[in-house]
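seq as requested:
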Amino acid sequence: MGRPSTKNLILATLTIAGVLASSVVLVEGLRASESAASALPAVVLPAGCVRPAGGFLIITSQYGYNDSVLEGAGPAKAWPVVAVNQGQTVKITVCNIDRIESHGFQVGSYYDKTIVSIAPGQVVSVSFVASQAGTFPIYCAIFCAIHLFMEYGQLRVSS
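struct tokens:
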């Protein structure tokens, strides 16, 4: 499989950004006639892939968590970041839109007692109380092609 073009990576980001934010995103350099919907195959969200009320939606795909590969995720940049207050109930829905590969999802100290594998088209909903202040990793615990970019998410719990 060849490396996707910059244009396709930008369009994939727009597609997922639209799903996550439900807002219009403009990118300089794209012609007005170009759209994510016409340039990429349709992304079919699995049943149940919706942001929980007051919670967070994480889309995992061949580009990582919420396109972490395109966001430059790494030791110097956490992505995605879930910020909550101590004592808050944290609700996260994780949807795997990758058509080929399973991806993992863990949250250090909160959702890491067993290794979670999310198969293509599967949705996992997680809920816990952020009882301890601090920064906790959000990461993939199974090997996958984009694994390196799925190691730098963070749950930030403020006191």
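The chain has two domains: 1-43, 48-158.
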